[in-house]
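User: Please predict structures.

Assistant: First:
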Amino acid sequence: MASNKKYWKSVEELKDSSIVETLSKNEFVEEIPTDQFLGDKETLENSSTSRRDFLKYVGFTTAAASLAACEGPVRKSIPYVVKPDDVTLGVADWYATSMADGYDFANVLVKTREGRPIQIMPNKEANGTTSARVQAAVLSLYDEKLRLKKPTKEGAEISWVDADKQIGTKLNELKEANKPVVLLTGTMASPSTDKIVEEFIAANPNVKHVIYDAVSESGAADAFKAMYGKRALPNYHLDKAKTIVSFGADFLGDFHGGFEKSYINGRKPETGSMSYHVQFESNMSLTGANADKRVVVKPSDQVFALINLYNAITGSTVASKSTPVDADVKKMATELKKAGSKGVVLTGLNDKNAQIIALAINKALNSEIIDTVNTLNIRQGNDAEVAQLVSDMKAGKIAGLISYNVDPVYSLSNASDFSDGLKKLELSVALSTENNATVNASNFALPTPHFLESWGDTQFDEVTYGLMQPTIQPLFNTRQVQDTLLKWSGNSTKYYDYLKAFASANVLNGSSWNTALHNGFFTKEVVENTDFVFDTLEVISDVAAKLSSSANKASGFELNLYTKTGLGDGKQANNPWLQEFPDPITRASWDNYLTMSIADAKELGFANPVKDNGAIDGDYAKVTVNGVSVTVPVMIQPGQAKGSVGLAVGFGKTFGLKEEMQVGVNAYPLYKGGNNIQYGVTIEKVSGTHQFACTQVQKTIAGRHDILKVASLKEFKTVDPKDHKNGWNKPAYVSYDHNEVEANTIDLWDEHNREVGHHFNLSIDLTSCTGCGACVVACHAENNVPVVGKKEVRVGRDMHWLRIDRYYSSEVETREEAKELGLSRGEMYEALETEAENPEVTFQPMMCQHCNHAPCETVCPVAATSHGRQGQNQMAYNRCVGTRYCANNCPYRVRRFNWFNYANNNEFDFNMNNEYGKMVLNPDVVVRSRGVMEKCSMCIQMTQATILKAKKEGRAVNTDEFETACSSACTTGAMVFGDINNKKDQVASLVEDKRAYGVLDYLQTKPNVIYQVKVKNTNEA
């Protein structure tokens, strides 16, 4: 049962480690450096009280924090002389728009205050979702360091008029001479922009449009075109699936943009049925971590396993090889045939042939899960055309290049060839929102606005037509790429007018433009194309032969290049929120690394020692692929397939980035041919020790009973949850008067009447939480949480109000139970380490639990923390003197101490240290000063705003009207916030649900954050 499992967060915990044992008992591993800010003569010379008297009266630690807490700066405010008509001071405006930066695509709502966008949320009416990167994109708007601010030629400022004149003249010359020019863009997914590009090419017949995605899914698009005659990506309705089999497709991450909402909608235990999900993979991915069953398999074996699955389902005898996981493949063939049209197979191999086999399996199943009609229009990059472009540029066959929001000088594996070709061009123009290596290497650099400053349209699938509208006046001297191309095509129409006319004529079918703009989207009708027919059986043997040829030659280690949940393809590498965001799997921030199995690490001599302050170190490895080498630190990763390693792209950027942001290693040079799998990898240990910023063993509550509760679907349906012996959600018991009684019957405090007014609760469903971290960044944005940097995170000083703990679990029992089984301590740790080859994973969002009987409140000597009538544990920052008693008395380890002033401090040169970055700050939340404690407030500013709005409108608060930043951002609906005194609120029923439990409930802190037991489909029900 769940309470019998051993939960652990790092490999070090599998050893008999005294350091980890010490860390688990020590919330603060460093003392307050009181001498540093009390021993300075200049700081105290104006005081009539001597340092000795001050310490004598107040006490050493309290004095230090008190002095720091009084350092709050005074700022002068400037009022509006004439208030704009469309701005009401203190009231937020929301705008519906769309994000499409070439890698991330989303229909969103944008919150603005006094004309400043400060937060992004999903547009749920448009079925929109947000990731950590989409949430953080609002901060990238204010990136004064990296954003292009004015047009330049050869580095010198130039006017837009002169730029248009000179570029137009050169384009005409090239057109007259019929010299080839290439327009190189990322995926735009914009129908009106596509039409403008067509018109630009019509006016300049020597121009060709090439689409380049740094992280390619060209293989999937090519396969779909071969199968269905249209170059697009298939959609997947995973909510309807009965059986899901994935071969390395991280569809809860970045595969095809992600399908987490659809996936979780098909996994509601209350319905009595859940999809059965099996993941075959080498890297531990977000999707693998959430799977019901995870099968560890090297990439080369994935290839043959996929062919073997095709043979088992269709009865074919396509040439293949046996693999170590063939028994699992046979079981899944049986499950898929049983599921029939409710089964689906996906593969993340960026190989046209692998994708064709997956499509052929789905066709053989008559799968209803894969949608070939409402296709996806993202990831449109074409690897073959990009390779041809680089070859032609190097050969001098291309005369001009116009690039838009791409950086091939950084992200191409053969970037040196591209750079050499760029120097041979007669004309090179870079239109870009940000400065980058490609912009710097081009003749002309023309700044384009951020999507939050832009007009536009989007069409991520065939059904949803999205509109983009500016939420702020342009910060810099920018111009949209559409206006530029229209002008260069000889069309004087402004893009806004062009867009409105295009939408009205081609999309809206007589519907109101203003209504569509207000909603942010318009739903279209889709017509299925039945003209194209593909006979799979005629070519599948050839497809399989091509697929297996490279896998047959596999030797050495096998490298899986992947994207991290936080940084993606690296477009937002200068965004401090994303750099400090801990990876959901490794819990490391500010880095990429080579993930390696425990067995391979032992064999090659790599280790990740934990220091006595909770910091983790790592050895360096020289990784060589196709003659290209990079040196990267090693992170030992439970669940990594032996013989394989993983490395994230998107890091290692240096051009234009702040020094603090120049972290990690550029893995794109290894990304040959856009293939995410590379064979023949050699790994050599080299000298040096890397210092990771990793929260893996910091602030852990591992080792405490009932942190997590996990049940199988069969147990959920057949076992009484409260059963004293076998229950999967049994209450905690304590000894009272020599009898064992339920803990909730014993209390040290008197109960208060909480039935009057509002009483807030937050429910977190562990079954629905995928660990994506969108809530973490949303909390950052809403609550002005500071970024502290790599060095501070390393020593446990991160300021995240909300963290997502990742626990591995093993069936080997606790020490006491191991003793009963006759296992020695050495045998127990050896057994745990064996289980670490493929552990189960559970994610648990953890924030202040807002305990009704809060241990922190009773120990605060100055009443800085107290309990509100509405259930929130409140902080009065100006009362706090930073004793940290509250943090030491908190069993959940959720309070954060301000060691420094993070705002207006050159030591922390992030968004709070410059005038542009400060524009993202929420004026409803104070920026905290040095020396005070801070933590989750359950977004009290949002709950009070909701109450005041209802009061102003003369009504009661509507059902489910209350929200927090984390619950609003949660794509899967795992977080539900509301008022339990309103019995119609969803949270009121969730609190009473049979899956509901409180973490560490035996302490009887009576938290207002309630978790729902995680249910996994072990395929027994």
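Second:
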Amino acid sequence: MPTNSPSAPAVCGPPYGDRLGGFLIASWAVLHVPVLVLLGLVAHQAESAAPSVAPAATAPGLPLVQVRHLFTRSSERRTAMHNITGAPTVSAEFTRADYRTTPEYYFETERVTDPVVLRLLDLCPTVFGLKKAVADLLAGRNGIALPASEGVIEPGATVRGEVIVAAGAVIAEGAFVTGPVLVCSGAVIEAGARVRDNCVIGPGCRIGFGAEVTRSLLVGGVFMKHTSFVGDSVLGLGVNIGAFVSTTGLRVTSGPVTEPATEEVCAHLDGHRIATGQTKCGAVIGDGVIIPAGTVLQPATLIGPHTMLYPKTQVGGFFPAGSQGR
């Protein structure tokens, strides 16, 4: 009787040639997919790095001005600071139309008690004209009557040039004051302080040891009790300047420093370069602002009233009224 020999198991699957093709295709994908992913990342980065331009901004009677997008990453902000001279410049006509450049935006004029300081604020359509207005005032060119010099200059104080010390003001022993300077009623320039060259020190201000003020208007009640420097600036009511604070009036991108300076310093608002008409421009600081110790204010810094600045080594640009700066 014939016996049935066991049969070979059936093979389910593709033939050998098909399996080899599948292996080759899989190998090609493994080798080339990373390359394709890398090429995609490079293309994405190139697209992200392409400069973007916001829609044109307009102002009445002015040509269209291209406004750059605000950068959000710190590296992009640093790059923007190096290229800041390439931003568009806006004429003085634009600044007059912008309320954020007027004295009324920064200073509550109803609280200004000194008639000379109040007249200066009324004369200027923008804060950028106040430094020249102070120089014209002390030179007798704008018709504002100056008070009589009836204050106290203590023995041992060094006073040179035309210095007017109003009734109730004091220049203490050891202070250095070089005119033209007006020290308003109730202001005190203490021992070791330095005030020079076209300054109006408003009522109730205190300038302490190691503090220096030059070519500036202090509206009133300003405290500079520690070593610090304020130049080419306007400080509002009740501003407090911490220790080792300094304003700066020239940009490092302007090339070699010359004296007197010749290149105009511009402020910056909404991506526009705002002409200041000044070759040295420090800061405009609104009422009630406290500048933390160790802060350096970049040229043409604009700080609205009652702004809260947190400790930081460098501060610049524009801070709206009542904002917080970190």
